[in-house]
Amino acid sequence: MSGHSTYQPKSSFGKWFDARLPVYRLFHDSFVSYPVPRNLNNWYTFGGILAVMLISQIITGIVLAMHYTPDAALAFQSVQLIRRDVTYGGLMQSWHAVGASFFFIAVYIHMFRGMYYGSYKAPREVLWILGVVILLLMMATAFMGYVLPWGQMSYWGAQVITNFFSVIPLVGDSVREYLLGGYSVGNATLTRFFSLHYLLPFMILGVVILHVWALHVTGQTNPTGVEVKSEQDVVPFTPYATVKDALALVIFFAVMAYFVFYLPDYLGHADNYIEADPQVTPAHIVPEWYLLPFYAILRAVDFNIGIPFTDIVIIDSKLGGILAMVGSIAILFFLPWLDTSDVRSGRYRPTFKIFFWLFAINCVFLGYLGSRPAEGIWIPLTKAWTFFYFAHFLLVLPLLGWLEKPLPRPASITDAVLGARKDSSGASQLEGAAAAPETKG
Q1: Which residues lie below 8 Å from residue 306, measured CB to CB, with a gap of 6+?
Q2: pLDDT by position in tens, the chain (length 441)
Q3: CB-based burial of residue 370 (10 Å sphere; 0-12 exposed, 13-18 middle, 19+ buried)?
Q4: Model confidence, pTM
Q5: Start-to-end C-alpha separation, the chain
Q6: Half-sphere exposure of 177 toward its Cβ, with a 13 Å CA cutoff?
Q7: Does domain 34-426 have CATH number 1.20.810.10?
Q8: Looking at beta carbons, which pairs linking 136-141 to residues 24 or more positions away fall under 8 Å?
Q9: Helix crossing, 172-180 with 152-163: angle to 10°?
Q10: Which long-range contacts (CB under 8 A, 24 or more apart) does 320-328 make?
């Protein structure tokens, strides 16, 4: 529903420039006159929030890189100097660190909204896949950024994560040594991670541009899951969507600002404010909170897989855990084909709605389990909730497409909006009629 361009240059210079490089026309058609469904709710504002957050992280990252020293002997102190001696350095460092956490909060909400409203279904499979690629790049960027302060958790987290590469058959040890720049985590590792942490956000920006491009080709979904059928179903992006996005952005940044100014270290780990010491291992090595669900899935596989009744091991526990962790993300690429239902929106799928919220609770609880030590009751709980994670994609979604009976869907977006208004108006009239006798009494 992008339609023909409505941009008309008014000045002579505007007409001349537009005929040679129609940059403003592109901006106007993409963010001003671009038609969006008229029934978008507040959950659809997180795409815009993520775009602003990405730019914010890139800008603050560039400023911090001007003062940071990627040297194992100086890195920890350089971060402290940035916070205490550089003008507005504390603000920049806190904004960048807290911003990473809020970036993941926004992206997880954005993805769960897409899963609930079926934004991954045809013809938007590529749009969804690009979103998963962005998630992977974000996780890699965040992990490498977590290493840069060169605290205890930074150092030992890098030690644990880089060991994963050694399980890759044939080339694992070589890949790990190249990534580390040697045989152990050290100065060369820090230099490599700093370079990649600086580079990856620009790769994310490139994939985001493709993501937005794919969105404009297929058009935006909406809470009803019904495709746009007429001009009555849409409104211009500006001012309708931009005003809503701007309000959501102000609220989001207000909450984030509270953490930046009053709780800048609340979302970090206390051990990471101790300088890295290769001779002292932390009692409990954990990643940042936004990676904890995947860390829990990694630890859920603590057994070898082999041929029954023999001593032959095909997949040991270490490789099995890594395959499970990688699989928990890789399975998202196949979500458009694992969900066999023809109904897009969860609003009209009563059984799916129950399983969706159970899945959301499961992901949050996996994050909690990832923060617990691998002992006692936490071990069987982690295995059970990891099983449910994969069962949701491999069993629940395929079976629901065949067994679930969906609710009736509206014929169009306009019918859904007008029907909701009519129902609301009717309910108000009934409430007024019911209250009238009491007033007379």
Answers
A1: 312, 313, 314, 315
A2: 445 688 889 899 999 999 999 999 988 988 899 999 999 999 999 999 999 999 999 999 999 999 999 999 999 999 999 999 999 999 999 999 999 999 999 999 999 999 999 999 999 999 999 999 999 999 999 999 999 999 999 999 999 888 888 888 888 889 899 889 988 899 999 999 999 999 999 999 999 999 999 999 999 999 999 999 999 999 999 999 999 999 999 999 999 999 999 999 999 888 999 999 999 998 888 899 999 999 999 999 998 888 887 888 888 888 899 999 999 999 999 999 999 999 999 999 999 999 999 999 999 999 999 999 989 999 999 999 999 999 999 999 999 999 999 999 999 999 988 876 665 555 444 444 444 444 433
A3: buried
A4: 0.91
A5: 56
A6: 6
A7: yes
A8: 136/329, 137/200, 137/203, 137/204, 137/207, 138/103, 138/104, 138/107, 138/204, 139/291, 139/294, 139/329, 140/196, 140/200, 141/196, 141/197, 141/200, 141/201, 141/204
A9: 150
A10: 321/297, 322/164, 322/167, 322/298, 324/297, 324/298, 324/300, 324/386, 325/294, 325/295, 325/297, 325/298, 327/390, 328/293, 328/294, 328/297, 328/389, 328/390
Q: Of 72, 54, 75, 53, which Cα lies nearest the Cα of 64?
A: 75
Both tokens assigned to 57 = 């992280």
How far is residue 157 from each of residues 190, 230, 286, measured CA to CA in Å?
Answer: 12, 53, 7
Cis bond leading into 239, ω under 30°? yes
Residue that has been written with the tokens 């997880």 in this structure? 108
- Residues 201, 141: contact at Cβ < 8 Å? yes
Helix (H/G/I), strand (E/B), else coil: 306:
strand
What number of other Cβ atoms are within 10 A of residue 146's Cβ? 24
Domain ranges in the chain with CATH number 1.20.810.10: 34-426
**Which residues, listed in sequence order, are joined to residue 151 by a DSSP beta bridge?**
275
* DSSP for residue 291: G
Q: Which of 357, 370, 358 is nearest to 294 (CA)?
A: 370
Residues in the chain: 441
Reading the block at residue 221, the tokens are 């979904």
Radius of gyration of the chain (CA): 25
- DSSP character for 409? P
